[in-house]
Amino acid sequence: MEFLKDPVAFIAGLLQNLSAALNLPPAVESILGTVIAVVVVASFGLVLVIPMIWVERKVAARFQDRLGPNRAGPYGLLQTFADMIKLITKENITPDGADKVPYNIAPVLSVVSVVMIWAVIPFSAIWIGSDLNVGVLYIAAVGSFGILSVLMAGWSSNNKYALLGAFRAVAQLVSYEVPLFMALLVPILLAGTMSVNGIVEAQSYGWFILAAPVPALIFFISSVAEIGRTPFDLLEAESEIVAGFHTEYTGMKFGMFFAGEFLHAFTISVLTAILFFGGWRGPGIEFSPLVGFFWLMAKGSAFYFLVMWIRTTLPRIRIDHMLAFNWKVLTPLSLVILMLTAVLDKVFAGDPLRVPVLLAANVVSLFVTLWLATSVSKRQQKDLQTFPTRPVAVPPASEAETSA
Amino acid sequence: MTPLQVIFLITAAVTLVAALAVVTRQNLVHAALFLVLSLFGVAVFFVLLEAEFLAVVQVIVYIGAIAILMIFAVMLTRKVASDDTVAANRNAGWAGLIAAGLFFILVIMLSAWSGFYTQAAELSRPGVDTADLGQAMLVELGEHLVSPQAYVIPFEVASVLLLAALIGSLVIAWPRIKKEA
Fold first, then answer.
1. Does B72 touch chain A (CB under 8 A)?
2. Which of A214, A274, B126, B154 is the most buried if burial means most Cβ atoms within 10 Å?
3. B57 chain-A contacts, CB cut-off 8 A
4. Which residues of chain A make contact with B130, given a CB cutoff of 8 A?
5. Do the chains contact at B138 and A99, CB–CB below 8 Å?
6. Number of domains making up chain A
């Protein structure tokens, strides 16, 4: 029971007993505790990637009406290990003329920028790596490191296609950061704090999805674009640009990009759950922090399923459509919704009407945007349909007589 | 030697070496990447000074936007790393002399200040205990940015400046529609 009430304190107590028995100085014991905590938080995501890749392949297979990996181990559970062994034993090629230092740092930076996000994610009410009071902004800042790693990878490969792929990737990533940041501002507005745990605790009266569905949608769409998943996966479309910025990467370096991308996908699912769906909140969290942890992982997995669902269903968007969608639809919509939320939140502060009014404002702005977008596209389509009249093919008269 | 001082010394060394590398490297992309490293060092300094908001904004604005734009511009130029470009020009000697002189003047003037030899006091606000201090200072920063008695006018002027830059870039990049004769 003691263990269930607070597992971390229990383990810390065990550590203290151990160090007292071994007569270690107290500084060593505290440093050891901190190091163990850091290792656990940092490797939690990386260890989670291993079953997640299996889940991804199985779910994608079921969407496509096939079985997925089922040879390596029961139900294909050891498939990820087989993939890892294959990647590790592959030859590590550095292309001729490549810049050695950025070439080797880029995959590491890409994974590091995702693992750094896990430092501020609250696994439960009392479990959080580091409760920064600018946590949400920190998450936004760490995303910039991933962009830098893409640029470094594309440039140092000494390959024109990799460089072109890197430019397109950075254009997409930097463009979709704008609505992402503005959609991130709305939960900060509603909660009154930038601390991630503070946002989860401010959702005790109701999840933010009720008061801000449109920012949740914008956040989700922009995050899917940020991680480079279908329908935004022009960054690595094999039919388009060989393999984009990671063309020249083989073996474990490619494995780092690969694992980093999967981890990033799960991370944004967990972030959506935290910012808009109550994070670790749920029935039964008074019993143990483990229940909060379970709720967070369940919500994160639900959104990860949504990400996989979108991936296996929708086709790829062209680069000009993608950027037009961002700058002409998402950015104005996120600006308008941010201003509306700010004004209405202050006008109706403390009023029980606050959430319904915000919800109504969201729905109205969404419909207005969709109406504007469809009317503009209809007008563009009408402008396009100025074909010269072409002769229509008519079957010869004899066939018409025999069929009549 | 407190751990904070050790971290400060390491960060200062890394930042200064990176800044030196920015101006002495022949390969422009390497110079830009070293600039990213020195900007990150400055962000670490902000954290050491208990200004986490500024540190995060430094990373977002400088590294996430400005440095990436500079790297883009550098990558799109033709002669990025050739052996005949020299990193220093004829006036390097005079520039070094003036920089060293300024450095010594700064050090002499600062050492006449009493705070040069004492450790900085912990930040505090009356009526706020240290656990909530970060949040309280953030709220204070936000209030100062929009308060008429504080910095609302510079804030608005900066926004107008950014708007002017945005419109200017649009004007420059607008496609010129050539009318058929």
1. yes
2. A274
3. 137, 141
4. none
5. no
6. 1
Instruction: Report CB contact under 8 Å: A134, B59.
Output: no
Set out the domains of chain B in order of their start, with CATH numbers.
1-79 (1.20.120.1200), 130-181 (no CATH)
Q: Which residues, listed in sequence order, are joined to residue A122 by a DSSP beta bridge?
A: A128
Q: Which residue does chain B place closest to A167, by CA atoms?
A: B72
Q: Per-residue pLDDT tens for A320-353?
A: 888 889 998 999 999 999 999 999 988 888 778 8
Q: Does residue A361 fall inside a structural domain?
A: yes
Residues forming a β-bridge with B128 = B125
Residues of B in Cβ contact (< 8 Å) with A152 = 33
Q: Nearest Cβ partner of A148 from B36, B60, B138? A: B36
pLDDT of residue B39: 95
Inform me whether the C-beta atom of residue B105 falls under 8 Å from chain A C-beta atoms.
no
Token pair, residue B64, equals: 């996430």
Q: Is A102 part of a structural domain of the chain?
A: yes
Contact A152 B33 (CB under 8 A): yes
Quick one: three-class SS letters along chain A? CHHHHCHHHHHHHHHHHHHHHHCCCHHHHHHHHHHHHHHHHHHHHHHHHHHHHHHHHHHHHHHCCCCCCCCCCHHHCCHHHHHHHHHHCCCCCCCCCCCHHHHHHHHHHHHHHHHHHHHHCECCCCCECCCCCCHHHHHHHHHHHHHHHHHHHHHHCCCHHHHHHHHHHHHHHHHHHHHHHHHHHHHHHHHCCCCHHHHHHHHHHCCHHHHCHHHHHHHHHHHHHHCCCCCCHHHHCHHHHCCHHHCCCCHHHHHHHHHHHHHHHHHHHHHHHHHHCCCCCCCCCCCCHHHHHHHHHHHHHHHHHHHHHHHHHCCCCCHHHHHHHHHHHHHHHHHHHHHHHHHHHHHCCCCCCHHHHHHHHHHHHHHHHHHHHHHHHHHHHHHHCCCCCCCCCCCCHHHHHHHC
Helix H, strand E, coil C: the string for B4-65 is HHHHHHHHHHHHHHHHHHHHHCCCHHHHHHHHHHHHHHHHHHHHHCCCHHHHHHHHHHHHHH
Closest residue on chain A to B81 (Cα): A99
- Is residue A225 within 8 Å of residue A322, measured between CB atoms? yes
Per the domain annotation, does A21 fall within a domain? no
**Taking Cα atoms as reference points, which of B46, B55, B72 lies closest to residue A155?**
B72
Distance from CA of A73 to the nearest CA of B (A): 43
Per-position pLDDT tens, chain B of length 181: 788 889 999 999 999 999 999 988 888 888 899 999 999 999 999 998 888 899 999 999 999 999 998 988 888 876 555 555 666 778 888 988 999 999 999 999 988 887 777 777 777 777 777 777 878 888 888 899 888 888 999 999 999 999 999 999 989 988 887 655 4
